[in-house]
Structure formats: C-alpha cells, structure tokens
C-alpha cells in the first residue's frame, strides 16, 4: 500500500541510546496554531548535549537534540501574529510559554504551563529535552509569539549563534550575582559559559575580574573578553591565589561555571563576607558546603543558581549587545561542520579535541 | 597595700570555661570618646550564649556574655552627641561602627572596622563575643551614635527586649527571603527566632505560612503569631506534609531557623522552582546539598544567610513595630530571674526545661 | 426576511456618548482560539468608568464598559488548555498577553502585543477600553491562559470582586513604594483604591499608616483596614498635620490615590529626604513639582506611577490574600444592583450618593 | 598687643558676596577627635560652585568653597584609626557621618546626624556648603573614618580628581536608573556630569546610548566615553530625533544632567512605557509634568533623583574603576591653575569659555 500524500522529510540528529546520537530522517513537523516552523540555517552543540550523549541526562529515544537555533521562518501557526514568513530569527534555548504562573511570576525558565500550579523545575527548557530540538533542517518553535526574535540584516548567523544559550547563561551569572560598578569578581572555569560570564561581569561594571582555569587558550580568551587577572589552578590553590590578588579581601561575586564540588567550594571560599556565589554549572552529584566557608551560616552570603533566561525580549537584548559591538563572541566558533557531519562534530566536541570552544553546524 | 582610688565595680556573667558561666565582679568600664556606658535594666539569654556555655563557640575566658541590652544611659563619651544621660535605650546585638567599608557597602553585620579591607565575617557582633556583653550591671556600647536607640516611655523593658536580637534576626529571615504579598512560606523550627520569622513573614504579606516543629506549645505560639498551618514533623515527613498542604506546588520561601542538616535540607526540598531558602540557623557542621533538591543547579533557586541586622535605625524600626501593636512578643518571656540568679537561668534555658522560650534577667 | 440562524444575544452596558452609558443588546461574542467566554455573575463600576461616562476618557461608541469580571467559563477557545467549562474564575482589569516584549520585560501592564516594539502605554488595559468589557452577561477574555484565575469554592463572588482592579491597584501603591517593615506611610484620598492602599501598606509591614481624607466614613474604613492615624484635611493643612504626627520627620512612602495637583503635591511635601511618592491616581491635567518640595532635585526622592497589575498569577495571589482572611474588603460593597438596573447604579456611583464605596452588579 | 602663639595660616577661596569668591587667608583648622586635616594637592571647581558664586545657592559669607579634594593626610584626630599621616587620599563631595539614621537606612547623602530624626535634605553635603571646603591649602575632613579613601601610588591626582563628585554623580544617574544589559539610554546635556552618566551607562551594560547636547566638543567627548549615537538638539526636536533613532520605541532610561524644564520634559517624553527618568540636575524653578508625557499617571514610570553618593567605600569603588583602565576621565581636565589663580579659574569656568570642561587647581 502507498501513502496518499508524500510527507516532506528532513534530517535531524537524534538520540538513540547512551553513546549514540545519529543523523536520521524524520517528517518535517506539523505547525500548530501557536507554533512557528523555522528552517535552521546555523546551530551548535552545547555541553548539555554531551551530557545527553553520554546518558548522564536522560531524554526520550528518538528525540532530536539541540537548543540553539538560528534560522528563517518557514511557516507560522494560524494564531501567530507579528511575524512574517521568510524573516530571519533566533529562539532562546529556553522557550517560555508566556502564560504560565511561573512566567507571570518572573520565573519564566521554570515554566510549568500545563501543570496545575504552573511551576516545573527546568520546565522552560523544551528544545532537545521534552520536544524535538534544533540540530535538524527544521525546528518547531512553540509559543512562537513569546519566543521568536528577529535578527537584523547586518548580523551574521555566527554573530548571534551564542545568544540562545551560551551568552544568555553566561551573562545571567553576572546578573544573578547582582554585580555593581566597582565589584571584584572571580569566574571559575572558562569554557564558553564561563567566558560569557567574564564578558557579562565586564558589561555590568566589575573592575577586577579574575578568570580561573588551566587551559592557556581559555585564559587568553578570558583576557580578551574582560578578565583583568587570570589564575591557573595547576600553579597553586586558586583560593589562595585569589585571596592574594585581592589583598586578603575576597571577591564580591564568584561565578561557578562548571558544576563540580571543587569549583563550587572554591567559589564559596573566595567570597568576602556578604558576598554572592552565582552558580551556573550543571552538577552531577550532591554538593558539600564546608562549615567554615559558609561562616556557620552567619556570613550574610547568597548562593544563587540560574537557568539560561529565554524568550524573545531576552534574545532582543542580547542581539542588541552584539549589534552594539560591545562584545564579539565569534572567536568562540573554532570549528564548522555541515549537519551531515554532525556525528564527527559530536566526536570532536565531546572529547574537547583541537582546542574546540564552540562548533557551528549548518544544515 | 590599699588602692588609692576605689574603682566602682559591678556584677557580670562571665565565661570561665566550657560548661561554666558564672556571676563575677568586674570594674565598671571606662568610657572612651565614642562609647556610652549603659546601666542594664533588663537583658536575656540567647541560644548563642548556650553555644558559648557549652564551648561550641569559643570566646575569651573572663568575657562578659550577652548581647541583648535594655537600659539607661549612665555616661556618654566625649565625642557622642544626640543623646542625654538618663535616657532609656536599647542597642542591637550587632553593633556596627557605621564607618567601615562593610557598613558603607550595605553589609553592616560584617563590619570589619580596623581590618584593612573593612570586611570581617560576623565582625559586627561584638557584645559577648569580642567585647564584654550585656549580662551585667553595666555594658559599654561602642560607636554609641550608630547604636543607641531611645525607647519611648510607653513601652516596658520586656516589650522591647526581643528587638536587639530575636526579632531582628527572625524578621530578617523574612526580609532576606524577599517575601511578597501572597507568598507561601514555611518556617522550620519554632524556637524564639523561628517564631519571630513567622511574625515577620506575616508582617510582609505572606498569606500561607506553615510552621514546622514538634513541641505543641511552640506550634500554638506560631499560630498566634501568624502561622496559618502547622506541621508536626513527628507525624510524618515534613516535606511530604508541606507539599500536600501546598497542593504539590511548594513554597516561595522557606526559612530555616535551627541550624541542622535536617531542617536545611527539608527547607530546600519544599521550595517551588525559583524559590528561596532563607537560612538563619547557626550550623555546627558541614552541610550537604542533595543533587535533586537543588535541581542539579538549574532551579533558579537562592540560598541566603543573614546575621542579625543591628544599628540604631534597625532598632528604631523594630521598636516602631512593637509600638504599633502589630505584634506582641511579651508572651515569649516565660521566666524571669534577677542577675544574681543568672546561673540558674542558664541551667533552665540550656536544658530547655519547663517550656521556656525566653527568660528576662534584671540586674 | 428572517435570519437563517438565531444568534444568541446578551445585555450589556454600552457607551453611547458623553453622559450616556445605557443597557443595550449585543450578540454574545464569538470565541477565538486563545479566548474564553465567561458568563459574568458579578461585576462592579470603577471610578474610571465614570471618567468614561463623563467623556473625560474617550472610548469608542458602542463599547461595552467595565473591567472587573467574576464569572463562570462558558466556552474555551480551541487552543486554550488548563481550564474546564463551568469553572468559576476572575480575570484582572488588565489582561496582558504574556507574549509581548513588555510582558517578558516585567512590564505587563504596558503590553503592546501587536505593536512593533511591544510596548504601549496602558496597552494591557483592554476590557472596556479597547475591547468589550465586563458590564454584560458575557465577557470575552483574551489570552485566556494568561488571564483566567480559578476561584476556590469557599469564596463568594463579592469576596473576590475587588481583586481584578481595586485591590490590585491599591496594593501596588504599597508595592511600588517599596514599603519595608517599620515604614511610616501616608495615603492621600481614601476612596476604594486608597483604602486598599492602606490595607496593602499594612500587609507589607508599615507601622505608622496615616490616612488622609475628609469623609468620616472613609476615615473610619481606613482605620478598620489598617490606618493607625487619620488626618481630616478640612481641619488644617494635611502636610502640617502629618509633619506634626511624624515629629517633623516625614514619611518614608506617600501614596497618592486621587489624581489631583493637591494630593500629588502634598504627598511630595510630606516625604522624608530619600522618600518615595507612589502615585496611583489618574490625572486630568499637567502636574507641577514645586522646587522646594523636590529639594531642587537633590533629595534622593522617587516618584513612581503604577497601573493596576493583572494576569492570572496576580489574581491568584490576591485571591490568596482574601482566602487567608488577612483582609476583608466585602464591607466596601455598599450597594447592590441587577445588571438591568445599571443605569441607576451609574447615577448613584457617579454622584457619590448615599455613602457609596463600591456597587455589586449581578447579571 | 601681640598673639602669644602664631597660628598657622593658609590660603582659601572664600565666598564674600554674590559675584565674589576671592582668595583669602584663614587659620589652618583645628583637628577634632573624629576629623582629619588634609593638605590639598589638587582640587577643582564644580558647576554648583558657580551657582554659589552667582548667589543662586546661598552659603555663609566667609565660607571656603569647593568639595572635591585630593590630598595628603596632615594630621589625624585622636579617635581616628586605620590611617597614617602622609597617606594620599581623596574624600567624596558628600561626607556622610556613618552613624545617622539616614546612613543606617541606606540614604547617606541625606545624612541628618545631629537632627532629631537623622534625615536632612542634602545633609551629607557639607564641604563648601555647611563647613569649609576644599579650595584651600588644607581641608578638614569630618568623620574621617567614614570618608577618607586611600589613593594607590600608581594613580595621579588628576586621574582621581573626578571621583569625589563628577564621576560619583554621573555614575549614580545610571545606577539609580537601574540600567540593565541591553538597555537603550538617552543622556540629556553633556557637561562633565552628563559625560560621566554616559560612561556609567556604558559600564552598566546599556547597548544603545544616545547623547544629547549642542556643543560639538561635548558630543565628541560623549562618543569617546561610550555614546553610540548623538543628537544635536539645534538640528530639530530631540524627542523626535530619539524616537526616530529608537524606531518609535523610546528609551528604557533617560538621564537628565542639566536641571531645566526643557531637559526634564524631553527626558520624560522619550521614555518607553515603564521607563525611568533618572534626574541629576540641580533645578532652579518649579517643574511641570505634562499630562501626556506622564500617561496621566498610568505609564508605570519612575522619576528618580540622586545626590552624589559619598563615603570611602564609594570612593574606593570609583578609584577601582579608574585603576582598571575601564574609563579615563583625565581628558575632561581642559585647564590648569594654581590656587593663587583661582579667581581667574572661576572667571573662565563660570563663563564656559575656551571649551572648558573641568579645571585642575593646585595649591
């Protein structure tokens, strides 16, 4: 028997089982009334995707991975207004509905639209987590009116490729830390998110920014993006080095950008009394708060965690930062692949070979 | 041989060694230019003093204990303006200098006046910690202009006795939690500070306040001070009970008022995504943050610790709360002793006998 | 000729011309994919509706007036999830879309969904302004998922009737003022909104609340809702009276709840240096800021205006306040009318006869 | 008759009468217990001093003018700790006591130490206002421990000369405006304070900064300090130009840096709904708020005024900004004079001749 209508099909990187993300074929998705179908022109791989690949973060078999789309509107849902087909857009990694209790409470990343109370941990993270993602020829953007952000003609795909996740997350480390003009800030781990945290700290007026890592390229990149000082933690205890660099005072804000006990604990130890630990890392085990580092609970400290802020207003602002020329993140794109080659891209990226920071994937 | 001038002497409760705080005699202190000598009319014992008694928190031998003075100005330092001898006053448990970097940075409890950088963990806590305290006939108040707060004639000593510490600390649990009108709040442990946290949560507009403890008198006191619901954690897992009471949503703010792993962890577990744990307890060992309770660092959560806010402006506001009749904390005073009987008072209070909440000590 | 299908019709209070709002018949509205049709069970008249009646605020002829609906879901749009027909609900006077740049920027009342940039002054106010309102048998709620808030069974219509506007606006006067525990607050003009501002100030922990009006019933109502002191401005300059009551200090926050030069200017004059004027009134002419009252621009003062916050999360919180028993606003309902009698209700309300505060209208 | 002890004398610029500030001789001041005597090495003239010169702002006859000292500690009061004689320091234009209710309430510029309630409009501005100022060979710094900020060896006097007033005030325009990453900001009037507001807006992450003035040199200086766009208001209505530049949206924050009805009103008119007007100017007459520009009070707008933040922590942070190299304000120093020539300096500066921005005065 034959199909009466040939359904259009597309290529997509799908999760098969731990250790295997493969390029496969799927139907191009149907467009619901609130959705937009976006033809992906550039996307990338995130550290979180590697967690998925390794089976450390569970997703459904057959799910398309990826949450960082740059593309062109192919088709708009019947109830979507304010956009036109053919428009260049991005959508954030986190796609809030706009109408959940969480969204209306100022906590859109924890959107629980559909739950009775409207809050769900990480509920706003849908692409490549609970719905098909962006490492494909087409991606369906839910709640399009809340999530599609037009890209000005003057900007290339690679210039805005970091907006959906890396830049939004990294900046939020500075924002949630409440950085003020004149602050001293330490950033622990200088992968793409840590580097964006450095850039965010500079954007918010920190005047002593200390980057912590071991990889010379990353330390150099941190300096270019705003770090005043860098600490190589193989050359001695980073806590001691930072306390020496701050003349014994400690920092106002420490940003954790890796997700380990070591970075978390060091970040806590370098805080001045009253300082803030802004945590961005994805942890994979319980954390320990040493009594002394926590001043027994009497230090007027804050520990703040932030999931990547999304939504079209956030994207608009980040695009504005790029357009203003304040920051150029294109040097973070160290390697480029076609979608056809995505398995090779995962191989390179997951093994952190060849000094890779971010890859650009073009369908 | 005789002393040429008889130095006036006074009674004071001093720390001798772990397990021993005794009533002793000491010289009435000399008054420096910025100090005020206050004749204590009422004071009290704090849970922290019991930590000192037990040797769990180290202080110098011979130090006078106590940080909650109500009294009358006996003598003003030569540079002190704006007060008169004979005026009824209180001073906060924390006595910021006003002029440290920490004070001028909005972090007065961590006052490090005298340190090079101006920040010192718990640096603002001086009474009964780094200088002689209030369980005595006289107490010397440092930086008097920043710390003495007049008491209106219409208020009794016992009405303002909780202002210096219990009320300031308890309220700060609500304040640091950022409670907003309509919030759901859980308060873990309903000793004097937890009870004041309940009262503070109500004052700030929380509309579902859940008190957690086991002692019936404390649960009843919580209800009187504003708890809408109470949870006895001997009758089942408090986390489950609170999740049921909030219909699966969790609370916006959880206040920890004891200082144990159990209360800390439970407070974390009952938070809605995006919620805040406001920690008041004095911990005595490392803390563990369970991965799931922390949403692997992706839950947009905050953990905030607060040391009792001090200074005369804080005291003025708390006295205003008392004077307004919004809250009556005098029922917390369950027992009364003369200063001569302070050893018996410590005995009662440290063993939490006879339903004691707070004692009033009158020299 | 006959109509092929009889369209269901309903009664509605429509604006005809300045001076005339009449009860008329209209088709029951069609339900779009994001809408909900609500059968109104109780509604009310707002001071703003009187401005419309008088022609002071222009709306289209034929528009149904009213923005405070309590009712039952009659029909849900095809894309609306999370609700069921027959459910009791309210919707706020302001109905944000949830997906505009303004909403996602934390400024939902200025929703400009549909404009290029997403911001529009008062754009979130749609009911009885840019779309048909609630003084009718049925009202169409736009962006239903962002706006419908279920009403618990235990609460009557009149208990939640103030949530959509009066309570939300009044409380926002306190919230935008940033009231803290221990603040001194003055509220100028004690109509329904000013009374709710008094209640909001008390909910947030103000401890000296001064109500200002001339009508004895309003001054008495203010005392019941939380005012510690009242000032009758016919008995002398209210600024002088308030400065005397605060012992020359002035208030931390002054809330303006009328919309006149006199109340605005007096509110500015009673502020302490560094204080905040929180303005709720709808003004009808230019305002003047006297140089001295403004400390020539050097007083660290703030003037903040707030349009009624809406959306289902706001409504949920206000319903929570009512359900908690913290505040009972039902005494504000002084008169009751059937929808059939709405012209008489306007007559009474617009002339402020018979001590009217709020009317309840039941279709 | 002869004086038994020759009192050391010094030169100082004193106010004689409107129109006359002259160089005179005075005794070097005595040092009280909380004071520090600072030998001035560099100071400057502020626009406020010109208001004093013209008699527009009244001060006592014989008062030494000036509030921007850079110098060396000559002598410390008996109760002053933490400094040493010979140390290079600055003090802010505003010298908070640290111990007033205003200081402890987070409102140090309105310090009313000595008043009963602790608040006084502009109470923190003492130098050249209520006590002798800095245009002299020596200046007495009150409450030295709260106000003296050490200057690192690597920085010249001129590098830190703007910290006490211009930089602190200008930055505060951005800070009080609550600028966030990605904001659009307009700055009205580009004198020294407006230029520092531009720099502050950039430091805080604004990405579209529009400077408004007419003087080409000032527009050019604004571009160097961070303005992305400039508007010459002689070439057309600045409101229209800014609305065109922002594509009809308006700005998130408008900073007023002159103190006139025109700049104030234009700043209000270019705000997006929900935007903030941050006012720095010193006004000399009543202001008018046009009804439409104010959205009749329904636009969720804020008007915020800020007096220059002072105190040693503020100075420390600003010195940190200079030391970090983020901003170089030395080009603002366009002319240099010896203290002997200060009358000529006033003549040049008050007439805004020769493109003067700031003068450096060296005793």
Quick synopsis:
4 copies of one chain form a homotetramer. With 363 residues, chain A is an alpha/beta fold.
CATH topology name of the largest domain in chain A, in short, is Quinone Oxidoreductase, Chain A, domain 1
* Most extensive chain-chain interface: A-B, 49 and 49 residues
Count of helical regions of chain A: 11
How much is the average pLDDT of chain A? Answer: 96
Quaternary class = homotetramer
CATH class of the largest domain in chain A: Alpha Beta
Radius of gyration of chain A: 21 Å
- The largest sheet of chain A has its strands arranged as 12-11-10-13-14-16
CATH homologous superfamily label of the largest domain in chain A? Medium-chain alcohol dehydrogenases, catalytic domain
End-to-end span of chain A in angstroms? 32 Å
Q: If you had to describe this structure to a student in words, what would you say it looks like?
A:
The structure is a homotetramer of 363-residue chains. Helices cover 26% and strands 25% of the residues of chain A. With 363 residues, the first copy, chain A, is an alpha/beta fold. The first copy, chain A, folds into two domains: 9-92 and 127-162 and 329-362, Quinone Oxidoreductase, Chain A, domain 1; 167-305, NAD(P)-binding Rossmann-like Domain (Rossmann fold, 3-Layer(aba) Sandwich), CATH 3.40.50.720. Chain A has a six-stranded parallel beta sheet, with helices on both faces. In chain A, a hairpin with a 2-residue loop joins β1 (9-17) and β2 (20-27). In chain A, α6 packs parallel to α7 (216-225). The interface between A and B is large, with 49 and 49 residues. β15 (287-289) of chain C pairs antiparallel with β15 of chain D.
